[in-house]
Structure formats: C-alpha cells, structure tokens
Amino acid sequence: MGGGFLLQFANRTGAQMMSYLVQTSNGKVIMIDSGHAEAEDARIICDTIKRLGGVVDCWIITHPHNDHFGGLLWLLENEQLDITVRALYYDFPPAEWVEQVETKEERLLVERFLLAVEKAGIQSELPPLEGKLVIDEGFSIEFLKARSQYEKYHIVNDASLVFILHFPCRSVLFLADLWIEGGRDLMRAVSPRRLRCDIVQMAHHGQNGVERAFYEIVRPKVCLYCAPDWLWDCDIGEGVGSGPWATLETRRWMDELGVELSCPSAYGDYVLY
User: Fold this and answer.
1) Cβ proximity of 208 and 246 under 8 Å
2) Given the DSSP bridges, would you call strands 139-145 and 133-136 parallel, antiparallel or unpaired?
3) d(CA 141, CA 35)
4) d(Cα 63, Cα 162) in Å, to the nearest integer?
5) Which of 28, 143, 216, 273 could form an SS bridge with 57, CB 3.0 to 4.6 Å?
6) How far apart are CA 234 and CA 242, in angstroms?
7) What is the pLDDT of residues 147-162, one digit of tens each?
8) What is the DSSP letter of 79?
9) Burial (0-12, 13-18, 19+ Cβ within 10 Å), 136
10) Start-to-end CA span in the chain (Å)
11) How far apart (Å, rounded) are the C-alpha atoms in residues 124 and 258?
C-alpha cells in the first residue's frame, strides 16, 4: 500500500456486516462503516481504535443499513464513547423514503442513529463530490457517488456511497452494497480509467451486487469480501452451494478475471500493508 495499513474486520456474530479501519503512515485513522448494532462487533472496533490512540479523523457511513452503521449506533447508545470522532461523513436518503422501499423498522433505526449522532455532538458532513478529501500525506478519498439519485431506485443499497481510498502506492475501490442499477449509473457517469483499482471491496458482501461487467472495468487484483463463512460458501447447513446466495458465481467471475487474492471475513480479520 506504500505506507499505513487497511484492516477488514470479520464479523464477531453470525451475521454479515461491513467494517474497515485504515491507519495512515502518520497515524491518522479512517473508519468505514461499523458493523451491526451488536456488542461483539461494536466493542472490537472501539477497542482497536483505542489501541491506535482513540481518535478517528474521518468516519464514513456508506448507507442506512444496520450492518453498516449499527456498530457506531450501539456504541453511542450503550457505551460512554471515550473515543474522538473528528468528522463523520454520510448522505442518507430521507427516513421516509427508507420506510417506503424497506420497512418501518429500518426507518426507526435510521432515526435512532441520527439522534444519537446529534446527542453525541459529532460533527457530520456531506461527502464532497468534487476533488479529493485529503486525510494525510499520500492518503485521500475520492467520492464517486452519493445518494443524489436515490428517488429512482427501489432499494437502499443503490443509494450507497461509492469512493476510492487512495494510498501512496495503491487505491481501494469501496462499493458498499451497490446493486445493479447503481452500478450501471456509475459506469455511465465515471470513466473506466477512474474506476480501475488494484483492490476492490466487493459489492453487497460479494453477492447480488453489481454485475460482472462492472468488475471487468475495475480489473482488480485483490478482492475484499465482507462475507462470513455461510455466505462465502453459500451454505445453509447442507454443504457448499446449498444456499440461495450468488457468492459462488461472483467468486467464479473473479477467478475468470484473474484475481490474485480474495479476502473473505469467513477466514478472520485481514490486514493489508
């Protein structure tokens, strides 16, 4: 990566979730999502941040789903948050729209999160869609997609933030839970040259996300899967491939595209330097 490191947290419960931590070569910390609103996921994230100094310089929440913002919500509601969050970036669609396309329970969870952030006095900002957000020397974030087109979609996943995290020598494309329509819109709006990255966080935990054509543009060498064991193997308890998920198909795509390394959370935490 040319300095610093990227940590992919594995789930501590049986549920899928997404959470990443980056530390720059000068010690600044970037958090991307936060896992589920469960003690096990939330506390391991908080403890890791404390070991690195207790300060998050930039925290990005990609979209309003529990397995992405829930860990931070749990910390704000259940713990005395003795870490400092200097800037929180998110761009949620209105809670009313979330209820229309998903459930009332999802809406209420979003409202709890927004209230908890306000009560904690955390400075929140919209992601800049022009230029790069510079975090440290050699480390910047380039947002490619916000929630601006959410009204045309019928699922929250397509309102995910999409961005590139630039390290000194490598770049990582984060797709969050981007689905087919959002992926197509991104391919139309952003040049293939900008989308090409050595490392990609696989959309929607590696299944039922963007299409193969999207990954053909990205041409990744390393794939990051926020996929626990049951999802990685598409296993409902009756063996590999017994489940309804599309993970095995996505894995086949990546094999055919010549990916060098796949990193599923099924195998534990991953650290890339």
Assistant:
1) yes
2) antiparallel
3) 21
4) 10
5) 28
6) 6
7) 878 999 999 999 999 9
8) S
9) buried
10) 5
11) 40
